[in-house]
Amino acid sequence: MKKLKFIDLFAGLGGFHLGLQRLGHKCVYACEIDSNLNQIYQKKFNMKVDYDICNVNLKTIPKYDILCAGFPCQPFSKAGTQSGFNHKIAGNMFNHILRFIKAHKPKYLFLENVPNLEKHNKGKTWKLMKRKLEKEGYNIEQKNLSPLHFKIPQIRFRMYILGIRTKRKKIKIIWPELKEPKMTIKRKTNIAKYLKSKPAKPRNLTKEKKYLLRMWEDFLSRIPKINKNNQRDKKDKILIDDQEYVKIYNPLWISEFGATYPFEDTTPSKMGPTQLKKYRGTLGVSLKNKSKEKIFEFIPPYARYSRSINESKRESRKFPDWKIKFIKDLRNFYKVNKKWIDPWLKKYKKPKYSMANEPTHRKFEWNCKGEKYTLEDKIISFRGSGLRVKRMDAAPTLIHAAITQLPYIPQLKRYLSIEECLKIQGLREIIPILRKKNYEMAYSAIGNAVNADVVQKIAKSFLK
How far is CA 192 from CA 127, 148, 219, in A? Predict the structure, then answer.
């Protein structure tokens, strides 16, 4: 393989740098606006790093063959604002990449962003970007890939964009040979080899979250076996270790347990507080004596109208079919399983900690089909969207949003450590620098990073 020179824009912790450096390629320029990351990058790679891409003098950039950029994803992410090019700062970063391309005309492009970029604004955003890159003389291909494609135990889909500058209309871009990862059944990967027995700064659960886990472990322990004579529908039961059990509805919003507010032909927002007084809201709470100002506090958040960018005003008048089915299925699950669910609800009606009453912690995602009903040998994420449980065969997506959303390992009684997250992200070389940094900075950086192992494997085929 010919040794090439590359630049690293929006460099972060250096995922592109590490991946390409391992193949013998040399970084000749980097840019990173975050001061902490900038200093880490300089220390690790012993090179000057520019700060603000907006003020770069393009004439001073050394010659290079590959332009790498993991440009800001927040404007295009499902978890972000989805404001796209309208984002005041991050939405304009793609245009700065174009400035470099137009000025230097590198042979290769290697970009990374969130998968939702391809679908953002009904696909128009990516089509525009691709058209602009092609206009500069590049053949462009993109794939949504996860480390799982490369037998790396992390579920983290990202959109990788490869480009080759060519005078010919079409030139073949070579991707690694991939096997589609199995997302719903048992995989051969396992995160065990990435775990440390004594990490530098172990982070433990708060007493409130320990209580939440006990509450949901108690729920799982109550799920009954099904006798052979039981005539339950096949879709309502599951085989675990040669024994049939009640199949847990997934995702489980317990807010619907006991609720009676109408949802099929109308919505709570359309009805208004006066009519709602005849019904029951979250967990069967009577709305009869609730004030007009407070009544919607007892309606589940997904059944209220919000002006968030992801919700249309039409939904406030008529729920979409998927939401109607979702609510109906949840209520039916409760009706069929009321006998064993009600004692559990009664036990936690007045929880020890108010956190258990927050809507987020009333949602339970069980992504462990066919596994024993226990949390002990699983991996858990306290997400903004609810408590998510997965097998130990792969770490959930590491995100930059909050350290409280880090994966938790019940077997180790702690969250994933900084060192473990770096290893999973293929950033092993950064461990000595980052392992003793503060949690907030370290995990935010890791969550935003490009996976260096994935970069290396893609580059090995692409740059042959």
Answer: 41, 15, 27
